[in-house]
Design brief:
Elements: H1 20-33, H2 38-54, H3 58-75, H4 84-99, H5 103-127
Length: 131
């Protein structure tokens, strides 16, 4: 369903259908039908955000990324600072804010993404022990 809306995929222009309508409908369905599946919701909101950004719809993409971040935080243990999925969402939001020329916010989100990835790497290294 989402692949057809991505502007980087070959388009079928014969129908004259705009991709934004189906994306709005998909976002509404995610809200309505996947309320009890937070991991699925996060992934779909993430993908919709990427597609919206690729279409140049930065404000809707920002909203989708923020919804995905909020949903992801609800399922994580308190004070979890090593979730790479959350780092990815932070990175996507930062990249979107850069395209909106919101550089200070962009920097804050990208620094947060980097901090999570660094903490995750340290945790992985501590767990690994050579034999």
């Amino acid at each position: 369903m989402f692949r057809e809306a991505d502007p980087f995929q070959p388009a079928d222009t014969s129908s004259g259908v705009n991709a934004r309508g189906p994306l709005d409908a998909a976002a509404a369905r995610i809200e309505r039908e996947l309320a009890g599946q937070p991991d699925v919701r996060v992934e779909l909101l993430h993908q919709l955000g990427v597609i919206r950004r690729n279409l140049g719809s930065y404000a809707p993409a920002e909203t989708l990324f923020r919804q995905a971040i909020d949903e992801r935080r609800r399922v994580l243990p308190p004070n979890d600072r090593t979730d790479c999925g959350l780092a990815s969402l932070f990175h996507e939001l930062g990249a979107t804010l850069r395209l909106e020329n919101s550089y200070e916010s962009c920097e804050a989100w990208l620094r947060s993404a980097l901090a999570i990835r660094q903490a995750s790497s340290r945790r992985t290294i501590r767990k690994w022990r050579p034999r």
